[in-house]
Amino acid sequence: MSLSIGEAAPAFALPDTAGTPRSPDGEAATVVVFTCNHCPYALAWQDRIADVARDYADRGVLLLAINANDADRYPRDSLEAMQSRVAGEAWPMPYLHDATQEVARAYGAKTTPDVFVLDAGGRLRYRGAPDADYDDPGQRAAWLRDALDAVLAGEAPARAQTNPVGCSIKWKS
Amino acid sequence: MTPRIELLWWEGCPSTERALAELRAAMADAGVDGDVALREIRTDEQAVAEGFTGSPTILVDGVELMALLGRAPDDDEPAALNCRIYRRRDGRIAPTPDPLDLREALDLTAAARTATP
Questions:
Q1: Backbone angles phi, psi at A13, to 5 degrees
Q2: Does the beta carbon of B85 lie under 8 angstroms from any beta carbon of chain A?
Q3: What ipTM was assigned to the predicted interfaces of this complex?
Q4: Nearest C-alpha neighbor of B59 from the set B105, B2, B115, B113
Q5: Of chain B residues 13-32, which have a CB less than 8 A from chain A?
Q6: CB A43 within 8 A of CB A74
Q7: What is the dihedral of CA A152, A20, A54, A56, to 10 degrees?
Q8: How far apart are CA A134 and CA A132, in angstroms?
Q9: Rounded to two decimals, what is the model's pTM?
């Protein structure tokens, strides 16, 4: 089951790569992005998503990236691999480890990436892909930015839902 | 003689359709007759047995595309059900091979066949 637009998103607290628990915390808007280390779609969109985190940080937007993949079967998604990646790249947002996959299941996340935008009340206002084409950096995560601009203006995004595109989340068997 | 071209795919990646279309286009450009044999990889065991490091994996006469071009694959993940990471010639990460790499691999194969007595 996936969250519906307008529905309250499940509360969670997940550790980031330093072990600090992170949660959506009543910001003007929160972006929850399920992502991972080895998916070409997630990697292709990574810079665009990071740019959104930077561009909206001073507008009260918190971006939380979550890796929920089964690291036993996919070692590249281990906590150690996440830590290494954050240390080696310029990450403007915390990278959270959903080791039990409970948060991904609660959100109904399907792919990496899969983007969820919550308003200040924690209700889902956008879900889907960052933009229309992983292969076109010029898109600049336009769907995500449009959704954030609407939420920050107190409006409903004109495009509330799109089809998430990416690698399937690697569920534990 | 027509090279044997196979595309190994896994349903967890949405890249198969695009990879197949670009492979067929490269074959048409290179004047390669015949079609692509599609082979689905369904289990971890099958991935290990096939040396499948991600979807899509393209074999030309049994040789993996990037190996054929003399390039180590970017993805050093063990064989598993996975999406494969390719790089476009401009450096961008992509879920499918660069069409120019497809064409080059087909041309290399054709040249090798011509050179073989």
A1: -140, 120
A2: yes
A3: 0.89
A4: B105
A5: 13-15
A6: no
A7: 10
A8: 7
A9: 0.94
